[in-house]
Write a structure and sequence with these properties.
The complex is a heterodimer of chains A (228) and B (464). Chain A is mainly alpha-helical. Chain A contains nine helices and two strands, in the order ααααββααααα. Chain A has a two-stranded antiparallel ribbon. Classes of the chains: A mainly alpha (228), B alpha/beta (464).
């Protein structure tokens, strides 16, 4: 109960100007029953700290969540070849230390600079992960089990409505940003990218695959993915 | 009017000749000048991580005059059974363990190796007050010239300032191999590009393995540069701008042939073989060599010679934090191998002309340092613990060679320094890392106002 009260007080702190404290106290029990409250329109609070780049561990943890599983139900992640074998890239055997993960021997602090080295690895990572996502989706007949092209089809590359729906879904999946169905502006740049790549392919059969792979790479490279 | 003179005038006036617009005005040093990149001063910071035994290198004691009551005991003889080079050194120095090259004011211990041959270029600062016995604090104090906040580094690293003042004029202005680097408020181009080994540099300088078609690459870059609404929200402190600038740089670095001079293989090209020879690299054990001091120093030399970097920071040994009998087994050897590699670097830079035909060494400043020193007596476990009074070695552009600044007392205790004469002065403070930073930057014609809150003293006795 104490915890709920603390949570309640913290939550109400953002709204103090809008509601009388006495009426809020009456809502404590409502929260405790687990009934969700609709707060309605809220002002976005100012950022409480400077944005920072993901650290190596955060990046390693994010990738399987975003990329989902492959056709063998193995989590998709970034791998590199070490001694002829694929190993997870963001560990000591891969490029984890080079990415800045401290070894607590000579380095005890992780650099969070958005350095050219980090960006070089981000490019490599995005190409690797997106190629795997496309390969996994291509063998999934049921769209709802796909991770990348869930609301569209590789073969139906020019269905604008389906493409827009899938772009909204990917923006939420990759960047955690929900784009309303009526919001066209927020996906306009991605849609341009999709159409440009699809149009550039010589064969119809390649258009959807190339375009969705490019969208995937663009989202995984985008600053919004790496800065929080 | 020389560029250095102009820089000093502008520095005095607080003017910036570049970056008047936007955040550049806030981030660039006020004294940055667009100097000719082919004339920019170069920097090598070489660190022995872990804390070094000064008596084995830069602040030796005469073993033959040491008694059981002596406050400082060099104990070189303890290293003899496992290190024949120390035995050889003791024979050459008639049992003292102190080498003073003929005609030189400098003296060295058995760990100095071939570096002693460069005595005419070297300036030793003894009795350097590190103010800490904690590794991270000492290391970061030396890196930034500012005493850390707790363990957290304060300010930007010397290499970062060096690169920031030189401008974004080389592919990787500030290269950091195997160590730490800090950038507090300076432009992203000056941030140390941290790598662990030569292969990492090759990775940065080589195109992506699974490249997409050029049209796709170009379309993705166009998309990123448009910046979405999320980017605007996250662009506090210009982080998204820095991110995009770094991506463009990473694409640029990987698009050319900059990696070719760093293709260190067991079957090298003639050019790379020449490099191996200059740094005594044994290509039969190449991976071991590349991870060791010779490989690190070779990488630094090549980065400067190829115009890839303006400032390079390297570790010239593995950790030498030898509290136990590893001090007897390894300390002198580790120091000697590091100093030998640095001696090769000086030779290499003296023999390598820049684009104007002038030896690179004439533009280069070298700082050799460690976290702090080690105790004057060997402990019960056969090692040495942490000690405050350290030393450092300076050489290169604007530095007066064959010079000793300051001195420790008979027990390796700290003594004050008169920065004008370089002599001991009990009424003044001992030299500190900010003094070293100020002196190096000034000697290279660069500003040091960023460490003014550390009250730096210019050690004019060290200036040529």
């Amino acid at each position: 109960m104490k915890g709920w009260l603390a949570l309640f007080v913290a939550t109400m702190g953002c709204q103090a100007a809008h509601t009388e404290p006495s009426s809020k106290l009456a809502q404590v029990e409502v929260i405790a029953t687990g009934v969700p409250l609709d707060h309605g329109q809220l002002e976005v609070p100012p950022l409480s700290r400077s944005p920072r780049r993901l650290n190596a561990d955060q990046l390693a943890a994010s990738l399987p969540v975003v990329a989902g599983n492959d056709s063998k139900q193995q989590a998709i992640t970034w791998t590199v070849k070490v001694g002829g074998k694929d190993v997870p890239a963001i560990n000591e055997g891969g490029v984890g230390t080079t990415l800045g993960r401290p070894d607590y021997y000579q380095n005890t602090q992780e650099s969070d600079d958005a350095s050219p080295l980090y960006l070089k690895f981000v490019d490599d990572m995005a190409r690797d992960v997106c190629a795997k996502m496309v390969a996994a989706d291509l063998v999934q007949k049921n769209p709802m089990t796909r991770n990348l092209v869930r609301f569209s089809e590789f073969s139906v590359w020019n269905d604008k409505t389906a493409v827009a729906r899938n772009l909204r879904y990917l923006t939420l999946r990759f960047l955690g940003r929900k784009v309303a169905d009526t919001d066209v502006a927020s996906i306009a740049n991605l849609q341009d990218l999709y159409e440009k790549i699809a149009a550039a392919q010589a064969k119809d059969a390649d258009r959807g695959k190339a375009a969705w792979q490019a969208v995937c790479v663009a989202l995984l490279i985008s600053p919004e993915f790496h800065v929080n | 009017m020389s560029s250095i003179a102009r820089r000093r005038i502008l520095q005095g006036l607080g003017l910036a000749s570049a970056g008047f617009l936007g955040r550049d005005l806030l981030k660039s040093p006020a004294f940055a000048l667009p100097v000719d990149p082919n004339k920019n001063p170069l920097l090598v910071v070489a660190t022995f991580p872990g804390g070094w035994d000064q008596m084995l290198a830069l602040d030796p004691r005469d073993l033959s005059k040491t008694t059981i009551d002596s406050a400082a005991q060099p104990s070189y003889d303890l290293c003899v059974p496992t290190d024949p080079e120390v035995q050889k050194f003791l024979v050459e120095t008639k049992g003292s363990g102190v080498l003073q090259p003929v005609g030189s004011k400098l003296s060295f211990g058995p760990g100095i190796g071939r570096m002693a041959q460069h005595w005419q270029d070297l300036c030793l600062i003894r009795s350097l007050d590190m103010g800490t016995l904690t590794h991270e604090v000492g290391r970061r104090f030396l890196l930034t010239g500012k005493f850390p906040r707790g363990l957290e580094a304060s300010g930007s690293a010397l290499g970062t300032w060096w690169a920031a003042q030189g401008g974004d004029s080389s592919p990787i202005p500030n290269l950091v191999v195997g160590g730490e680097s800090y950038n507090e408020g300076l432009d992203i181009f000056a941030s140390g590009l941290r790598i662990n080994a030569a292969k990492d540099l090759l990775t940065v300088l080589t195109a992506q393995g699974a490249a997409l078609p050029p049209a796709t690459e170009s379309a993705i870059t166009d998309y990123l540069m448009k910046k979405g609404c999320g980017d605007d929200l996250l662009n506090g402190d210009g982080l998204v701008d820095d991110y995009l600038a770094s991506r463009n740089k990473s694409l640029l670095l990987a698009s050319g042939k900059l990696g070719v001079p760093f293709q260190f293989t067991a079957t090298p090209s003639a050019e790379i073989q020449k490099l191996y020879d200059a740094f005594h690299i044994n290509s039969k054990i190449l991976q071991l060599e590349l991870a060791g001091p010779r490989g690190q120093v070779m990488l630094a030399g090549q980065a400067l010679a190829q115009g890839i970097s303006q400032a390079v920071s390297i570790n010239v040994s593995d950790s030498i934090d030898h509290h136990d009998d590893d001090w007897e087994l390894r300390h002198a050897r580790d120091l000697r191998e590091g100093f030998n590699a640095l001696a090769d670097l000086i030779d290499f830079l003296k023999a390598t002309p820049d684009k104007a035909g002038v030896a690179l060494w004439s533009r280069t400043t070298l700082l050799v340092c460690s976290d702090f020193a080690r105790t004057p007596k060997v402990n019960a476990r056969g090692g040495r613990d942490h000690h405050l009074a350290s030393s450092c070695l300076l050489a290169g552009k604007g530095i007066k060679g064959d010079t000793v600044i300051g001195a420790t007392d008979s027990g390796l205790g700290m003594q004050g320094l008169d920065p004008l004469t370089g002599q001991v002065d009990p009424n003044q403070n001992a030299a500190r890392p900010p003094d070293v930073h100020a002196t190096l930057l000034h000697a290279a014609g660069l500003g040091y106002s960023h460490i003014s809150n550390q009250m730096p003293r210019l050690i004019t006795a060290a200036l040529a």
